[in-house]
Each structure stands twice: as C-alpha cells, then as structure tokens.
Design goal:
Layout: H1 3-13, E1 20-24, H2 30-38, E2 43-46, H3 49-55, E3 64-67, H4 76-79, E4 85-89, H5 92-105, E5 109-115, H6 128-135, H7 138-141, E6 146-153, H8 161-179, E7 187-196, H9 200-205, E8 210-213, H10 215-218
Parallel strand pairs: 1-2, 1-8, 2-3, 3-4, 4-5, 5-6, 6-7, 7-8
Length: 222
C-alpha cells in the first residue's frame, strides 16, 4: 500500500475524528516525507535533533516539526527557532533550558510535559511528586518563553490492553485535575498526547487529542 492509502486507513480508523495525527517520520527518507506531505500531512514527528536539522530546510515552510524523542539540553538551540511542539519535556531542568533558549531568540516555544505512566523503567517523564514540586516552584511561575500546551505519556509496551488503558486513563485523570487548578497563564492544557501505532485507538478512547503514528503510515523500519 502507498503512504497515501496508509494515511487514509489510519484516519478512517480514528475513534476521535478531531484527533490530531503526528506522522512519525524518524529514520525515514525525505522522499517518504514529501509523499506524506503531498497526501496532506503537515505534522511530522522526529526523535533526533540532527535529523530534524537535516530535513527541515528540505521541506516546505508550512511543515510543522514535532520533537517527540528524549531531548538533551545542549541540543535545544538547534531547533528552538522553528520547532512546532516539543513533546518530551521530562524534567524541570529541561523546561528551564527551553525557556532560556526561547528568550535568546525572543520566541515562545510550545511544549508538552511528559509524565511517566508506564510500569517500565525505560520510559522518561515526571512522576506526580516531581510535577507538583515544579508547579509550585517560584522559578516555574517566572518562566516567560514557554507555552505548556498539555501532557504527553507513553504506555507500557505490552499486549495487555487493560494495562495500557489503565495507564492512559490515569494520565487523562491528571490532565483534567490540572485543568481545574490555578496555574500561570502560559499553561493552557489543550493537548493530551498519547498513543502510537500499536495503541492509538485505545488512547483515543481514553481521551487522547494527539497521536504519534509511524509504522502504520510509513511501514516498518527500512
């Protein structure tokens, strides 16, 4: 099947038709991205700064780049001028560095806070105590060049759907709870990014507004 046909199949399967699709294009050649762009995709997810840097000048100006991988503080400056959304802000230290880089170029950088919801140790993200500590810190309230648009989380890599559902549900509960709290104006909480090729339908059933799908669009890794 072609990338266009795969895209149509993914969109037709959506439980939430209004959900946003991020086409995960990491490791994929530019030709694949251009084919997806021609089929209507504007949001592309990459997990390596170097790869975004290489691809960004070769794609049309209205392409929206999503940094979905673990981001190192010393690499932020390379994507700060153009990144559409950083999905994986997994520490207060990283958030402060993004704010600092945004200040340098006078750009407010949109981000999602990554929560650790999986039972696997390998996943990055805040736990609940770390999140509460950050939200109540004076340093947090003083940030000026970030816009926190919501939360992101990755479920455990398992065949157990009830486990996946439970983890997504816990993130949705936290998302709704945070919405009811009095937080600084740069926290807008519009997006709940959860769900990938293997579990995006469950994620949408549990309230996801944004899914990251790669192999179901582009096929397996080459």
């Amino acid at each position: 099947m072609s990338i266009k046909a795969n895209l149509e199949a993914v969109k037709e399967s959506f439980v939430n038709p209004a959900g946003q699709l991020i086409a995960v294009s990491k490791t994929k050649p530019l030709d694949d991205l251009k084919e997806a762009y021609a089929a209507g995709v504007r949001d592309f997810g990459e997990n390596k700064v170097q790869e975004i840097q290489t691809k960004q000048p070769e794609m049309p100006a209205d392409t929206r780049w999503h940094m979905i991988g673990h981001l190192q503080s010393n690499k932020i400056k390379y994507i700060a001028p153009f990144v559409h959304l950083i999905h994986g802000v997994d520490s207060f230290k990283l958030l402060k560095e993004i704010d600092k880089q945004g200040k340098k170029i006078d750009r407010i950088i949109p981000v999602l806070i990554q929560m650790h919801i999986a039972e696997e140790e390998s996943k990055f993200g805040f736990d609940r105590a770390e999140l509460d500590e950050m939200l109540s810190a004076a340093e947090f309230a003083a940030l000026t060049h970030v816009q926190i648009e919501g939360l992101m989380g990755m479920a455990t890599f398992t065949e157990d759907e009830s486990q996946i559902r439970k983890e997504f549900r816990s993130l949705k509960t936290l998302f709704e709870e945070l919405k009811s709290r009095s937080l600084p104006s740069f926290v807008s909480l519009k997006e709940l990014s959860m769900g990938m090729s293997g579990d995006y339908l469950i994620a949408q059933e549990e309230g996801s507004t944004m899914v990251r799908v790669g192999s179901a669009i582009f096929g397996g890794r080459g």
